[in-house]
Design the sequence.
């Protein structure tokens, strides 16, 4: 049993280890993303300073709290602005899906491990950005290890929730083979409802409800609120339970959808 | 015990029907209509361990669709397929562990990374023991001349290099069955030779069963004692290549270059004129009625011959006849 698990970790870990290598194949991109995120952060900080020019609190949040939140959310943003749906469609359209399905591993598990494994790499990549935010814009990071640990758990689970959600929609590609439009809409919706632009606590009630009905906040708003100090550690267990609910429901559903969709698979060409 | 068994295997695709033009496209969106396209129609065959089988047919005959059903990535519409005692679609992952697949136009390798990275990964996911991996890698490196390629990213490789890399990655876990879908497509003669040699070697040394689709007759002649020919989704021949050659190689062609006017020559018995130019005469004769020397003699007696050549009954002409419909009725070998 233990040995079987160890073997699995080795196999899936080997896959996940390819992602960073692939990323660094084009080093220019590493810099482009860094600069783009730095510029966006600068704009956001100035925007929110302007918003707070005539007021000290907005929906219970003061300027330092909001800035803290926005900067952290900004750093994490690429994690939900993914194009999984499009990439899935692309795999099907160009026939590469056939190759993926011929690998002797569970395809979904493999992509999930890839996705979550990437988080470790991501933390490393974004450390310079965080430091810049601390130095230039006064970002305040918590010192309590418990907060960091809870944040880590919430982030990993939240990312997994979004992964399973995307997987369900990605399976549409088996039927439509066109996924670009859906993918673009998905990034737009996720950017807003994950709380990258505005803390969800600032939204009007009905929008908050809408955001709560979608999974995106689980990956950004939930962990960022804790790390930025908007939410307290005491609240973490309750939030964690909700996340687990999302996770289990979407995991089961996504597997079922995939198993049905795969019978449809029409590998193109050849 | 057959290693692959297909019974009455069929695949029907439902494809959207579109009338031509913008109006047609709109109509298809509003009221989609589908038509059924039968890609594979009731094919049955079995393959024994260690065989090399050429699976041939014109483009669109249903070769790739069959391969995809055998590998488990396509679910058959009807019929039954067993590979190594498993249903490859239901037990896709278990099946994948024991097979290797090369699709001539796709790659399982990481495009941007050095080839050795992909190889290492493949060895890990198939759990090839390190010592065995090293041994196989050395052996493959020699036959496929991989030495310098190991550090090269796939994207910088030529077509021939890519295919060699692909084959090495596919066979590094010593699969019991390999499916090669047009492995020599677009390659030069030397690379083709090397790849054929490699396939033969794997088949001989490791007893690997090979299913090969190809349009390259050299592949078939050199590799496949047995061929399965399909046409419009149906099996039209399954048997040794020699039977087909004997049956369709009944006629031979002989070409004479003459000094005098070639049309002056009377046609020898058992032969007919295929082409006649002022100084060139091509005759086809039935080997069961006459011989090459009889035909040649008759022509040489009539006119002065500068040179002549006898065409081998090559597979190309045989296959052309078969694709042309000469085998609509199935034959038993």
Sequence:
């Amino acid at each position: 049993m233990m040995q079987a698990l160890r073997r699995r970790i080795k196999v899936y870990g080997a896959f996940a280890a390819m992602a960073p290598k692939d990323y660094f194949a084009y080093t220019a991109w590493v810099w482009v993303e860094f600069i783009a995120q730095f510029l966006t952060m600068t704009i956001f900080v100035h925007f929110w300073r302007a918003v707070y020019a005539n007021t000290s609190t907005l929906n219970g949040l003061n300027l330092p709290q909001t800035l803290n939140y926005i900067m952290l959310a900004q750093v994490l943003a690429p994690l939900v602005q993914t194009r999984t749906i499009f990439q899935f469609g692309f795999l099907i359209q160009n026939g590469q899906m056939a190759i993926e399905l011929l690998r002797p591993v569970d395809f979904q598990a493999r992509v999930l491990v890839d996705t979550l494994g990437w988080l470790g790499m991501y933390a490393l990549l974004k450390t310079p950005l965080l430091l810049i935010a601390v130095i230039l814009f006064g970002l305040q990071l918590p010192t309590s290890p418990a907060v960091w640990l809870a944040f880590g758990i919430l982030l990993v689970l939240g990312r997994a929730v979004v992964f399973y959600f995307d997987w369900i929609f990605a399976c549409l590609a088996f039927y439509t083979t066109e996924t670009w439009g859906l993918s673009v809409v998905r990034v737009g919706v996720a950017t807003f409802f994950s709380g990258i632009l505005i803390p969800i606590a600032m939204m009007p009630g009905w929008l908050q409800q809408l955001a709560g009905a979608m999974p995106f906040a689980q990956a950004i708003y939930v962990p960022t609120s804790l790390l930025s100090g908007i939410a307290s550690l005491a609240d973490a267990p309750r939030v964690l339970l909700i996340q687990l609910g999302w996770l289990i429901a979407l995991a089961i559903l996504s597997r079922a959808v995939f198993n049905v969709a795969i019978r449809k698979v029409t590998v193109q060409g050849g | 015990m057959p290693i692959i068994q297909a019974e009455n295997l069929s695949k029907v695709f439902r494809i959207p029907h579109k009338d031509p033009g913008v109006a047609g496209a709109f109509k298809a969106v509003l009221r989609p209509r589908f038509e059924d396209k039968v890609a594979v129609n009731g094919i049955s065959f079995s393959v024994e361990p260690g065989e090399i089988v050429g699976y041939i047919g014109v483009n669109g005959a249903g070769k790739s669709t069959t391969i995809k059903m055998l590998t488990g990535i396509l679910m058959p519409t009807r019929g039954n397929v067993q590979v190594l005692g498993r249903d490859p679609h239901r037990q896709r992952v278990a099946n994948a562990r024991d097979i290797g697949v090369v699709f001539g136009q796709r790659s399982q390798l990481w495009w941007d990374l050095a080839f050795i990275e992909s190889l290492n990964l493949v060895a890990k996911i198939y759990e090839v023991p390190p010592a065995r991996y090293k041994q196989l890698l050395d052996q493959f490196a020699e036959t496929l001349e991989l030495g310098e390629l190991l550090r090269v990213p796939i994207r910088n490789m030529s077509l021939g290099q890519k295919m060699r890399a692909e084959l090495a990655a596919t066979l590094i876990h010593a699969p019991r069955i390999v499916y090669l879908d047009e492995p020599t497509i677009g390659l030069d003669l030397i690379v083709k030779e090397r790849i054929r040699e490699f396939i033969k070697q794997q088949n001989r040394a490791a007893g690997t069963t090979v299913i090969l689709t190809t349009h390259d007759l050299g592949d078939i002649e050199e590799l496949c004692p047995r061929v399965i020919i399909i046409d419009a989704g149906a099996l039209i021949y399954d048997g040794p290549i020699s039977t087909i050659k004997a049956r369709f190689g009944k006629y031979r062609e002989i070409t004479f270059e003459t000094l005098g006017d070639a049309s002056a020559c009377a046609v020898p018995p058992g032969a007919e004129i295929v082409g006649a130019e002022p100084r060139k005469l091509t005759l086809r004769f039935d080997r069961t009625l006459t011989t090459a020397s009889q035909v040649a003699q008759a022509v040489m007696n009539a006119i002065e011959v500068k040179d002549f050549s006898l065409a081998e009954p090559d597979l190309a002409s045989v296959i052309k006849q078969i694709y042309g419909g000469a085998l609509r009725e199935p034959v038993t070998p």
Summary: The interface with chain A takes residues 13, 64, 68, 71-75, 92-94, 96-97, 99, 101, 103, 105-108, 110, 112-113, 117, 120-121, 124-127, 153, 181 of chain B (CB under 8 Å). The first helix of chain B runs from residue 21 to 30.
